[in-house]
Amino acid sequence: MTTLIPPPGPDRHREIVSEVALLWAAHHPGPFPDAPFHRRHDLAYLDFNMAGCVMTYLRNDGVPGPGDVEVLRDRLLELRAAVALLARSEEYREGLRVLRGLLAMAELILADGA
Q: Measuring CA to CA, which residue among 36, 7, 1, 2 is closest to residue 111?
């Protein structure tokens, strides 16, 4: 899954914020979905960290909180690796959907500040 980043232009920021809001609305409610036992805690913590950054970004009308850009950048490789891990098994389809959504939101937020 590749995130479609809006091209530069006067409406880019608004388009990114709108897309992040749509992705957030589709994000899972409740506990983290099933994941490999040895990675479950790490993936749930990753979800928690990323979700906090996304919620702050949306609450601030598209302005990340202090340190959130660094958190998103620092966790991007970990998030991509987790998506690749869960993509290997149909058993973890819901967890994969959740992490793909978080990855898309992170990429959009980072592109918004670029």
A: 7
Q: Say how far apart CA 8 and CA 20 lie, in whole Å.
A: 17
Residue-by-residue DSSP string for 41-71: HHHHHHHHHHHHHHHHHHHTTS-PPTTHHHH
pLDDT in tens, 92-106: 888 888 889 999 999
Rounded to whole angstroms, how far apart are CA atoms 64 and 33?
Answer: 26
Give the phi and the psi of residue 8 in degrees, each rounded to 5. -55, 145
Q: CA 58, CA 24: separation in Å to the nearest integer?
A: 9
Give the CA dihedral 45, 50, 52, 54, nearest 10 degrees: -160
Alpha carbon distance 112, 92 (integer Å): 30
State if pTM tops 0.85. Answer: yes
H and E: helices and strands count for the chain: 4, 0
